[in-house]
Amino acid sequence: MLGLALIASGVFGAAGALPAYAVGTVHSPIVGSGSTWSANALQAWIRNVWANYQWKITYSESGSTQGRNDFANGTSDFGVSEIPYAIANSNEADIRPSREFAYMPIVAGGTAFMYNLEIGGKRVTNLRLSGDTIAKIFTGVITRWDDPQVKVDNPALVLPSIPIVPVVRSDGSGATAQVSIWLRQEHAGLWDAYCPKVGRPLVNDHCGVTSNYPVIPGSGFVARSGSNGVAGYVALPHAVGAITFVEYSYALNSGYPVAKVLNGAGYYTEPTAQNVAVGLLSAQINEDTASPEYLTQDLTNVYTSADPRTYSLSSYSYSILPTALGGSFTENKGLTLADFGAYFLCEGQQSAEVLGYSPLPINLVQAGQKQLQKVPGGNPVIKGITDCNNPTFSPDGSNKLANEAPYPADCDKQGATQCTTGTGGAKDTPTGPGAATGPGAATGPGVGTGPGAGTAAGDETGAGGGPAAGDGQQAAGSEGVLDAETAPVIVAASPQSIPVAAVSLLPSLAMAGFGGGLFAFSAIPPILGKRGRTSLLPDPADGIADTSRGLTRS
């Protein structure tokens, strides 16, 4: 009833006023494909516009490479990718399509390093890794968790002598491209030495950028398809020792931690919305409106930023928009696509942080709004600073999120100390059955005792959290984690790990207390399906993807 009252009062009203449309124009269904990196945000926005306006949008999470190919071939109305076509220094033959198009930023975020590691049977949540350590892990140079270099990053942890299992994407992905761009830029020696081992040719004497991660047969690497696939594998109970690169959103949904990564200022930081916003202040954006690469990003200065709050692997995703009619793309489809883009550049960004992303700053929103006006048939509402409702906007045009970003704690500085707090979705402190609080529980330096950190059992010290929380359920939630071999999908149900379905139907969130605890929830209006039913999910006949349960309704 609270949700209905809020809606009635206008607090959670429609996502934005609609423009006046010409007689005969309709919002035709549109289809998109591509990035899994930004899929959680896209699917949330798709549900929201369906709930408010009944715009039918179907999005296939097929990976950035497939998204670029589908758009080029005309089999999708829009694509989504973390890298542009024909990126420089690429190992892949990815040419610009003949179809006329423009790039538009969608959402920012951090590529996170989600892991599954235990000490004394309790989950570690306060792992720290330098860029050099990460590069050596994903090029097969460092193969065990008790390697001396990993110990240098983690002075308060007694790391187990077990193999590191790097988990990478088996399909073409933007996350892989982002990591390979970073490896080529910041760790060229390691990357150049790795490529020949997997039969990859050198480009100008260097290992190039790739969307398809190369794996040495028999190396111990594991390859899985999709962000859900790699995250789902790492979250398996028997996958202790595994680590993957994935959008932060997937770690939040799974309830598993991510590594704090050493930045250019000498601090280990998390891929929070604020840290990503700070990082992107250093991004170089192509502002040449005549350039075919307009609005694409150069992250060189992000990798090396001297701001202590920066998360080094911060970036944003692109939507590939058609700027001419042709094939199956009509003006009525353009109407839907332009209105959808106008929605998520403003109100949609409100839910970015809770979904594990960072809202776009004002310069990218304004540039994106200009791109939307190139879509044939479109009539988007162009909102300014005062009415856009984007949480990054300040009246002076600066990035509010970055301005208010907190500085890291002293214990996050590179050196002999180490914070005990965890990251990612594993922020809770076990207090119920299964928590190590009695005799034998570790209490020495490095043991997780703050928010997000549990306590280690036995004689081990420095474990920052345990798999048992509350009433002894798995940290991934009361429903656990599905086996990635059969259903590579994360199912999240803990209050620290809010399912996408719980936040996707409205752009604003409310906070309310239940059972003595504080939970984030969305005031969700019922959706009337085609047959008049009331439901919290779209009608199966509507073709709307349901990512909260890993299903595609078609």
Automatic annotation (TrEMBL):
<feature type="compositionally biased region" description="Gly residues">
    <location>
        <begin position="435"/>
        <end position="469"/>
    </location>
</feature>
<feature type="signal peptide">
    <location>
        <begin position="1"/>
        <end position="22"/>
    </location>
</feature>
<feature type="compositionally biased region" description="Low complexity">
    <location>
        <begin position="420"/>
        <end position="434"/>
    </location>
</feature>
<dbReference type="InterPro" id="IPR050962">
    <property type="entry name" value="Phosphate-bind_PstS"/>
</dbReference>
<dbReference type="Pfam" id="PF12849">
    <property type="entry name" value="PBP_like_2"/>
</dbReference>
<comment type="similarity">
    <text>Belongs to the PstS family.</text>
</comment>
<dbReference type="InterPro" id="IPR024370">
    <property type="entry name" value="PBP_domain"/>
</dbReference>
<feature type="region of interest" description="Disordered">
    <location>
        <begin position="531"/>
        <end position="554"/>
    </location>
</feature>
<feature type="region of interest" description="Disordered">
    <location>
        <begin position="420"/>
        <end position="480"/>
    </location>
</feature>
<keyword id="KW-0732">Signal</keyword>
<feature type="domain" description="PBP">
    <location>
        <begin position="22"/>
        <end position="346"/>
    </location>
</feature>
<protein>
    <submittedName>
        <fullName>Phosphate ABC transporter substrate-binding protein</fullName>
    </submittedName>
</protein>
